[in-house]
Amino acid sequence: MKHILLASALLISGLATAQEPCPSGYHHEENSSACWPDVSKQQPTDPPQQLQHQEQMAVQETQQKASIIFFRHSAFYGSALKPSIYVDGQEVGRLGSGKYLVVQTTVGPHALSSSKKETAIDVTLGSNQTQYVEMLIQNGNWRGAGRLVAVPVAEGSEKTKKLKLQQ
Asked: Model-level pTM?
């Protein structure tokens, strides 16, 4: 009986130390039963191809961008006001008197609004397109509000020449 128990114990301990085969792409190191990846068999990535792919992605990203330039004339009336500007419901900045603000956005349709949200305008931008939008100050009962008006590129670029970038 002792011999059977001793033989069983030896058999079980021998099975416990036996290494199971590793899956494809893995191997055992020295006396370890763990499977380690075969790094020597991995194919190195070709850096020029990877760099070329990154450059293509960067070009595609720049082609999918558009700009909106919001501007406001310098005037005494309403000069203390800095109405908020919203693109698709998200505030992108506040515009002071005699300033302009450049917003980078994606290609496609956008809803533009100011502090007077019910007067939103819709614009659809193409790749690398620039849209100029003028802010007009409207007087109200207790405070003035900004109203946005889309203007042609030639008119907008001429009107923004004398203005300063909103910080």
From this structure: 0.59
